[in-house]
Amino acid sequence: MHPIAQVEGRFVDVDGHYVIVVGRFNHHVVDSLVEGAVDSLVRHGVDERQIDIVHVPGAWELPLAVKRVLARRAPDAVIALGAVIRGGTPHFEHIAGQCNSAMSRLQLDFDTPVANGVLTVNSIDQAIERAGTKAGNKGAEAAMAAMEMVSLLRQLDEAQEVAS
Hints:
The protein is 50% helix and 18% strand. By secondary structure, the protein is an alpha/beta fold. Helix 2 packs parallel to helix 3 (91-110). The chain has one domain: Lumazine/riboflavin synthase (Rossmann fold, 3-Layer(aba) Sandwich). The protein has a 4-stranded parallel beta sheet with strand order 2-1-3-4, with helices on both faces. Strand 1 (18-23), helix 1 and strand 2 (51-56) form a beta-alpha-beta unit. It contains 5 helices and 4 strands; from the N terminus they run E-H-E-H-E-H-E-H-H. This is 6,7-dimethyl-8-ribityllumazine synthase. The active site is at 91 (proton donor).
């Protein structure tokens, strides 16, 4: 019997071009997510010159900008950051749901990781907690997911080349 083959992303082969696409709405929260993402990338060896940041008005505009970045810049990964905070209207559900759905489609359509660091929370306090206080920094976590997927996909590509 041979052992079960396992493949998982590593954080030692994550160099490449990363684009962070940021919704400015709720910038007092989102700025901390960007700082966390950039810090995480740099700490794992990504050269700052290989990180681009694209600003859009809010979460609704993220998918179109991410699509254009994927099509024209061909990055190794995109990290989408923003904050959608529930209010007294159904606006929250429409924005959050459509944004998440579009991000999922884009990464499949372009065969490129799109890490979703868009906060969808019930209150400003929850947003602040997820932007670097009690609940960690979801921007840093999105960057980690992006790097892990870049590494994983490279390994899967290498395994395919060896098998061919």
